[in-house]
Design goal:
The chain is α/β, with parallel strands linked by helices. The protein contains 24 helices and 32 strands. Strand 19 (349-353) and strand 20 (356-361) form a beta hairpin. It binds shikimate-3-phosphate (S3P).
Length: 657
């Protein structure tokens, strides 16, 4: 979760080298006839994936900042596993390379990449003679084969497929011809020509013959697709901005074309050519926008920027049309769906019919939008830009490093970096709670969940905790972190750079009991569980003079707590029962004596035997979510120095939105 407020800045210096050009430069350098130098290489995760895969195949790639020195593969390694992570370009372009090298390799990737289509690239490569198989858990496996040139007519409009075929064509006997339906980005052809390969372009037809690639010495221009986020921010906030040294290949700048036709005052100047690629400066001036229109070619030339164009449309009065959008469904997420979701959050309507997307907007802006970004880097960045445009808002994930590692710096957003660490924290409600608290206090925060194995070594546990400005600690690390940090208390849930490690659990319990009108002071109570949160509860309730009996599945741990705090061994008529264990047979078997007037269940997810029994008997039950709210609000106040007005109902409403 990342929550931003309306503060931003635009700094183009954080935009790195173009991602598409960087992938290609590394791949061609890996098969060149000598050592190459690539400057201003993109340092994004996608390009890092390509780097790792090329190293696995035998290339020697040394990085010094953004400068890569590449010694090509001499004898390609076979039987390797290539982890393409989130990167479709890595998987598809390397499918062509590996087919050309004729080696066996298993391609794997993350969940998103695993669900994306690969047949589109395997089909032409198979026709050239490459063998591939598909086994569970991998994208595909290349099995070698001798390549023969073919003539191939594009089935989908994809620069990745074209590039894979052209790269394979460098190794194939005879001539390889690829015929496009409409032009797609042409970086591969341009770079091949620059590196002396035998390649010819005639309209929509590209032909390549078996040839050597000369070593490269190139400077990668700034990534246009990254700059597009900053252009959007400048344009929608009426700021002047200048971006220099940007890749301006017209197969990439459809975004500018669509905006210029829609009245945007955006110009380019100082255009020169680097390695066949036009590069120059972009100047944005305050503009009044009219409805936007993007044809099939415009969409293809702005394929990664369509979410931005549609978001601009969603806050610009009128009906806006985007044609031939289907291919967007096969990106890192279904981007048509993602765009519709963003547009609706921005108060517009977004309808798809006959492969065209129509966005209608009254030009107004909404307050504090919360975007769902489908774990897609471009959707998340687009949503952050729109949150800034709206004066504040939040996104549910922040995978910016996939394509734009300097994104937050480039927009001048410096969040408090907060996290939750625990064994299994994926489904925690803390991120939404922190998003609520950040938006209420108009602060900029990120809050991530980090699941760690129970057996993680102490040093690693501490270095994860130290990587953030503030950390919530949950099961099973509360007591361990307390001991490691020599805290004054036996269990901690709140640690941070500028605060003493402490627990806000006790505070959360007291607040939630008090808010429900429960008069717990001086009463006999049962506490179920003997972990960190249960112990904190014991400590705080003792201050209220409660008599406490601990009940736990492992009796020895209950005895230890009883001994440590001198608790009661026998309480048969408790006034209340407070449970800190997840639902299990032990929890379901606990009987509630007639004396019980309230039950508190810390586990706010899933079933609870105690909660069910309380409900059946009309006994008041306090939900753990309420405690989560109060302890989280206290942690947030400690980290940020900002107290948020107590409003649990407001939080519940926020959760339902
Ligand atoms: C890319 C081509 C496009 C683009 C992707 C990068 C490339 O994909 O969306 O981000 O570097 O060739 P398709 O070729 O699938 O359209």
């Amino acid at each position: 979760m990342l929550c931003v407020n309306g503060q931003f800045n635009i700094d183009c210096n954080y935009v790195g080298g173009d991602k598409s050009v960087s992938h290609r430069a590394l791949i061609l350098a890996a098969i060149a006839d000598g050592d190459s130098v690539i400057r201003n290489l993109s340092l994004c995760d996608d390009v890092a994936a390509t780097c790792e895969c090329l190293r696995a195949l035998g290339a020697d790639i040394r990085l010094d900042g953004a400068t890569a020195a590449v010694r090509p593969v001499s004898v390609p390694k076979s039987g390797v596993t290539l982890n393409c992570r989130n990167s479709g370009t890595t998987a598809r372009l390397l499918a062509g390379l590996v087919a050309g090298l004729g080696v066996r390799a298993k391609f794997i990737g993350d969940e998103s990449l695993t669900s994306r289509p690969m047949e589109r690239v395997l089909d032409p490569l198979r026709k050239m003679g490459a063998h591939f198989s598909k086994t569970d858990g991998c994208l595909f496996e290349s099995l070698g084969g001798k390549l023969q040139g073919i003539e191939y007519k594009a089935v989908v409009n994809s620069a990745q497929v074209k590039s894979a075929v052209l790269i394979a064509g460098l190794f194939a006997d005879g001539e390889t011809t690829y015929i496009e339906n409409i032009p797609t980005r042409n970086h591969t052809e341009l770079m091949l020509r620059g590196a002396g390969a035998d390649v010819a372009v005639d309209g929509l037809t590209v032909t390549v013959r078996k040839s050597a690639v000369r070593a490269l010495n190139l400077d990668v221009p700034r990534d246009f697709s990254s700059v597009a986020f900053l252009i959007t921010l400048a344009l929608l906030c009426g700021r002047e901005a200048r971006f220099d040294g940007v890749l301006l290949n017209e197969r990439r700048t459809g975004f500018l074309r669509v905006l210029q036709r829609g009245g945007a005052n955006i110009t380019s100047e100082n255009i020169t050519e680097r390695f066949g690629e036009p590069t120059g400066d972009i100047v944005v001036k305050p503009s009044r926008l009219k409805p936007l229109y993007a044809s099939e070619t415009d969409v293809c030339d702005s394929i990664d920027e369509v979410p931005l164009l549609c978001s601009i449309a969603a806050v610009t009065q009128g009906r806006h049309e985007f044609h031939a959008v289907d291919e967007l469904r096969r990106k890192e997420s279904d981007r048509v769906r993602a765009i519709q979701s963003i547009a609706v959050k921005l108060g517009a309507t977004a309808e798809v019919a006959n492969d065209s997307l129509t966005i209608a907007s009254d030009g107004g802006k909404v307050g504090n939008p919360r975007f769902c970004c489908f774990n897609d880097h471009r959707i998340a960045m687009c949503a952050v830009i729109m949150a800034l445009v709206c004066g504040g808002g939040s996104v549910d994930c922040a995978p910016f490093d996939v394509s734009f590692p300097g994104f937050l710096q480039a927009v001048g957003v410096t969040p408090y970096k907060l996290a939750l660490i625990g064994e299994n924290v994926r489904d925690s409600r803390s991120p939404v709670l922190m998003s609520y608290l950040a938006s209420k206090s108009n602060l900029c925060c990120s809050y991530v969940t980090v699941s760690l194995p129970r057996g993680i070594p102490d040093g690693e546990l501490l270095s994860v905790a130290n990587a953030f400005d503030g950390v919530n600690v949950t099961m099973p690390f509360k007591t361990r972190v307390a001991a490691l940090l020599r805290a004054d208390v036996p269990s901690v849930n709140t640690v941070g750079k500028r605060i003493c490690p402490c627990s806000t659990d006790g505070y959360g319990i007291i607040c939630s009991l008090t808010a429900n009108g429960i008069d717990f002071a001086n009463k006999p109570l049962w506490i179920v569980g003997a972990g960190g949160a249960a112990e904190e509860c014991v400590r705080v309730l003792m201050k209220y003079n409660c008599a406490i009996r601990v009940i736990n599945r492992t009796q020895a741990r209950a005895d230890a707590l009883t001994e440590k705090y001198g608790l009661s061994k026998q309480i048969d008529e408790p006034y209340g029962v407070l449970s800190f264990v997840p639902e299990c047979e032990f929890e379901r078997n606990i009987q509630l004596p007639n004396s019980v007037r309230f039950v508190f269940v810390a586990a706010y997810k899933g079933q609870s035997g105690l909660r069910d029994k309380a409900a059946q008997r009309g006994i008041k039950c306090v939900d753990g979510l309420e405690m989560l709210y109060h302890q989280g609000a206290k942690s947030f106040a400690l980290w940020t120095g900002t107290e948020v007005r107590d409003d649990y109902d407001g939080f519940l409403k926020y959760c339902r939105l």
